[in-house]
Amino acid sequence: MKTNGVIPGMKQWLYSLLPAAAILLLFNGCGVSVNYSMTGTSTPAKTISISEFYNNTDLGPANLGQTFTNQLKTYFIQNSSIAVVAEEGELQMEGEITDFRVTPIAPVATSDPNQINQASSTRLTITVKATYVNTLDDSFSFKDKTFSFYKDFPNDQNLTDVQEQYSKAIFDRIINDLFNASVANW
To answer: Exposure of 64 by Cβ count < 10 A (0-12 exposed, 13-18 middle, 19+ buried)?
Structure first.
């Protein structure tokens, strides 16, 4: 529905943009340089080398380290302007997956004292230990920092059926935290 050639609500929306536009014009007119990066990183580095993260767990699938490393490299490629190089990057990252744990949670009590109480849910927890070296500014580097996350699922699901999907979801969270701790400097 139009009123006087203007879509309802459009006028208020346009008026809400005026202060922001005025500030931008003021900064541009005064010669103030505003640097804003859409990449989410706050580092001048151009390259990062990410060594293979080793799977140092007892229960995790054999390809867990390779899967994590590939997902981490893909995240850097998609979310920053930093090029992933094979070695000698200005930024360097390495580490290992130290824990892949399946824990029963949310126990359900039975009325029969001879019957074992079962859990209604299970928690998959993955822990990664990482070392990050910033050759341009060592104050941002860290050694053996631990990142961990988990995913709960009902006991009627078999871990082997959901392991790949849940591992990826957990890795997404850990990688986001690792990215923020290293190049985003949050």
So the answer is: buried
What CA–CA distance (Å, rounded) separates 122 from 127? 16
**H-helix or E-strand spanning residue 181:** helix 159-182
State which residues of the chain have pLDDT below 70.
1-43, 108-117, 185-186
pLDDT digits (tens, 9 = 90+) for 158-171: 888 989 999 999 99
Nearest to 97 by CA among 18, 163, 171, 176: 171
Q: CA–CA distance from 141 to each of 65, 81, 93, 105, 131 (Å)?
A: 22, 19, 10, 36, 8
Which residues 6+ apart lie within 8 Å of 74 measured at CB? Answer: none
Q: How far apart are CA 50 and CA 96, in angstroms?
A: 12
pLDDT given for residue 166 in this prediction: 95
pLDDT at 148: 97
CA pair distance 170, 151, nearest whole angstrom = 7
User: Exposure pattern of 113-141 as b/e (b: 16+ CB <10 Å)?
Assistant: eeeeeeeebbebebbbbbebbbeeeeebe
Q: How many CA atoms lie within 13 A of 143 on its CB side?
A: 2
Cα 142 → chain centroid: 17
Q: d(Cα 159, Cα 156) in Å, to the nearest integer?
A: 9
pTM value is: 0.72
